[in-house]
Amino acid sequence: MWKMEELDQLAEFVATLTFDSLPPAVVERAKWILRDTVGVIVGGMAEKEVAALAGFAARTAPGPAILLGHGGRTKEGWAALVHGTAGTTLEMDEGHAFARGHAAIHAVPPTLAQAHNASGQEVMAAMVAGYEVAARSGVATRLRQPVHPFGAWGVLGAAAVGAWFKGFEADDVAGTLELAASYAITPSFETAYQGATVRNTYAGMVNRLGLLAADFYELGFRGQRGGLQTSFGEILGQSFHPAALSDGLGQRYEMMRGYFKPYSGCRYTHAAIDAVLSLQADEVVDIDDLASVDVFTYDIAAHLSDPAPKTPLAGRFSTPYVVAATLVNGSAGPELFVPEMLANHQVLDLAARVNVGKNVDFTAMTPARRPAQVILHFKDGQRRECTVYGSKGDPDQPMSDAELEAKFYGLCEPILGPEQTRRAWEELGRIEQLEEVQGTLEILAPVPMHVEVPRS
What we know:
CATH topology of the largest domain: 2-methylcitrate dehydratase PrpD
CATH class of the largest domain: Mainly Alpha
Radius of gyration: 21 Å
CATH superfamily of the largest domain: 2-methylcitrate dehydratase PrpD
CATH architecture of the largest domain: Orthogonal Bundle
Shape: globular
Number of helices: 22
Largest sheet: 4 strands, mixed
């Protein structure tokens, strides 16, 4: 039966959280997460459908929130939706292995959507509150196999941000989270395999719904007591363990256990990418000499087996395609998923010869480790192999500061230009010193600002 004390403890944590209460290591980590998430939002804004969504929001719902990487302005809820969509489109956003999902995308966009009158320290505190609620809810939840984590427990992270900005007391934070539990959507994982881009909107949708939950609670609406257990332990999930909501609360910050993504693609493909890049670093691989490739990995990653994806999203969820394209291209960034690469005959021919299998020993290591073994079989009978037990960007294999900076520049420069990208990087790195962040958000808008005229 649902134990309300865990939710009450989490709500008390959110209600009393201030910047001054955060350990220095958490502040530093939060700044890296903020920079990384802003980078993937700006980079994702270059995708045609995302830019169209941003333009729609600016035209139909004008407001004070700046749309990063676009320049339009819209209402807070729409900004949280657009940025959540942009930030997940490239599959490069920060994640959390133990939550089996992504917490930052449910904390940063809702925070920035409401930051036009906020100080840097307020942004940091609200963001940490949202991250901790989202990640802890994810750790507590074991989703059913067909359910994608975007669109599920992340609604609670966005709701926590909304409650924090409203200055709710602990009882009201708890009530907001109970209400928000009814606003989780039905996010099918199959959409990712098929490349149906509705999947890219999941995080943004529940970001908006989470902020609405705080508004509705303030208006007098109330949620189901035990709503978290029902939504995440029975409807969307097969189990929900409330103890995770408060375990080590205030002592262990979940954002310290998150990971950054160096590659564009589902995290389940990253160990295989690391193995491929390691093999290429050891010795040049001539694609014409390859007969086939075997990939052995953990259970859920073994499902990513379509060798001929038709869309960029489907490509990012295809281990055969990602392995083949990495072997051909020598890298694993967004460039692998442009139409020319998705139609590349050499890549598709090799992808058809990539076999993906499940290794039960690897499955037993998850979620703490996400291993993969890649075996290259050559036409002359030789073979080369590499096994990795995690992915670049994990807490025990961190990306360097220089690598994270290069990722940010690579995503932002095509949209903002070199000078604005440099200024944005520097401002975000000292955000806790800023009395107001509006000027920093304006730097993250392109020049000239693409504010579209409303249609008559």
